[in-house]
């Protein structure tokens, strides 16, 4: 027996399915389990957050150094919203590839070239 409870929109759902062994066997025969091989798995596509993160890193890497307000302005332009721009700025602040130093009244974000 399988019981499903929840809602669909505002409608409550309480569904009970009773299946015997033969029903389960027929259902199991219809389901094909595919186990992906590691070598055959395609690379995970970048989602929108990953793309914006990569662009934000590239922006600072190419500039070398930007003040906090300038960087935030560019990130807000990139994302189209102040909150998304601030999230990227915080993420950059905590990145091992970025050094944040005091630039007087504003922080300075600098890209760190990794040593080989």
Task: Detail the topology: elements first, then pairings.
Elements: E1 2-8, E2 11-17, H1 21-30, H2 48-63, E3 65-67, H3 68-79, H4 82-93, E4 98-103, E5 106-111
Antiparallel strand pairs: 1-2, 3-5, 4-5
Number of helices: 4
Order of helices and strands: EEHHEHHEE
Radius of gyration over all CA atoms, rounded: 25 Å
Number of strands: 5
Percent in helix: 40-55%
Description:
The chain contains 4 helices and 5 strands, in the order ββααβααββ. The chain has helices spanning 21-30, 48-63, 68-79, 82-93, and strands at residues 2-8, 11-17, 65-67, 98-103, 106-111. The strands form 2 sheets. Strands 3-5-4 form a 3-stranded antiparallel sheet. It is elongated, with a radius of gyration of 25 Å. The chain starts with a strand and ends in a 5-residue tail after the last strand.
């Amino acid at each position: 027996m399988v019981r499903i409870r929840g809602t669909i929109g505002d409608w409550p759902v309480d569904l009970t399915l009773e299946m015997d062994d033969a029903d389960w066997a027929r259902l199991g025969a219809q389901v094909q389990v595919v186990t992906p091989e590691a070598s055959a798995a395609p690379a995970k596509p970048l989602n929108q957050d990953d793309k914006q993160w990569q662009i934000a890193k590239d922006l600072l890497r190419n500039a070398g150094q930007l003040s906090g307000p300038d960087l935030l302005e560019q990130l807000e332009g990139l994302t189209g919203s102040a909150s998304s721009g601030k999230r990227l700025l915080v993420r950059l602040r905590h990145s091992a590839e970025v050094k944040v130093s005091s630039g007087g009244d504003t922080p300075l974000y600098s890209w760190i070239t990794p040593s080989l």
